[in-house]
């Protein structure tokens, strides 16, 4: 099938398929006599798998590091349990989980510093701010559990 049809079947774009191929996540597709890529149902299944792995938090580099073992995952129903012969054995999943834990810790410390700086902490020093809710304009309601705070519309992010 042509690239547009394969992309639609996989729930992505032709540009993403070319990107996955360039990064080694998808083997180069055979070409027709007119030079167009010709994808199979197996290629579509692989793109779906790659997208699922990326959605779960693995990076493109993580997936590329175990791309040679993705074929094993294509035939299984769902992702394998840890200890199987796929990506987990290479430490990719364990490494990514460690990276995510470190990022959560960093963001939690940042959140607590901000809450403390504006006086929105509980008795234990923890930020007592409820989860941010936004309205249709993207305005964030930054009130704490007691109702203190303000609504900030279109505030620039710190990146």
Explain what the structure shows.
The chain has 159 residues and is mainly alpha-helical. The chain has two domains: 3-87, Multidrug-efflux Transporter Regulator, Chain: A, Domain 2 (Orthogonal Bundle); 97-152, no CATH class. It has six helices and three strands. It has helices at residues 3-10, 14-22, 41-55, 60-65, 70-74, 92-117; strands spanning 133-134, 140-141, 151-152. A three-stranded antiparallel beta sheet has the order 1-2-3, with no helix packed on it. A hairpin with a 5-residue loop joins β1 and β2. The protein starts with a helix and ends in a 7-residue tail after the last strand.
Q: Low-confidence stretches at least 5 residues in length (pLDDT < 50)?
A: 151-156
Q: Structural class per helix/strand content?
A: mainly alpha
Q: What is the third-level CATH name, the topology of the largest domain?
A: Multidrug-efflux Transporter Regulator, Chain: A, Domain 2
Tell me the β content: under 5%
Q: Mean pLDDT across all residues, rounded?
A: 78
Counting DSSP H or I runs of 4 or more residues, the number of helices is 6
């Amino acid at each position: 099938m042509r690239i547009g049809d394969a992309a639609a079947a996989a729930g992505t774009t032709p540009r993403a398929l070319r990107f996955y191929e360039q990064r080694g996540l998808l083997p180069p597709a055979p070409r027709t006599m007119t030079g167009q890529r010709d994808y199979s149902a197996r290629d579509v299944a692989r793109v779906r798998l790659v997208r699922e792995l990326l959605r779960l938090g693995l990076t493109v580099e993580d997936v590329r590091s175990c791309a040679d073992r993705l074929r094993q995952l294509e035939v299984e129903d769902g992702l394998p349990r840890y200890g199987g012969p796929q990506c987990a054995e290479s430490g990719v999943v364990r490494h990514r989980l460690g990276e995510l834990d470190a990022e959560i810790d960093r963001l939690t410390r940042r959140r607590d510093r901000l809450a403390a700086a504006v006086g929105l902490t509980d008795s234990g020093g923890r930020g007592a701010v409820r989860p941010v809710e936004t309205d249709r304009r993207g305005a964030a309601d930054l009130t704490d559990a007691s109702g203190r705070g303000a609504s900030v519309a279109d505030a620039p992010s710190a990146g």
